[in-house]
Amino acid sequence: LCLSEYDSPNHITYAAFLNVCARTLPMGTDGREEMVRRTFRLCCQDGQVSSVVLEKLRMAASEALYNELVGSTMGGGASLPLDWTCNVRGEKKRRAKWVKS
User: Fold this and answer.
1) Above 60 in pLDDT, residue 18?
2) Model-level pTM?
3) Is 31 helix (H, G, I), strand (E, B) or coil?
């Protein structure tokens, strides 16, 4: 994701990659969990977490991993940390909300 010679990844790039993980890597494997974990952490560092990314994260991550990555940071219905979302472009101006399952 980060080695492209064209541009840096945006929230759509991260969401698409998480979708690929969800569709191609076997659920519950260490490889999938680590790939999803690393991808989401890079997305957070880049300030590219959007509602689309969270939707795809929910599909790609086990419940335990999702709670590890998102649930420990916020309570139900709280806004995402600003540094996670500060570089998202093309999404409505409201900040993404975390929805607990």
Assistant:
1) yes
2) 0.81
3) helix
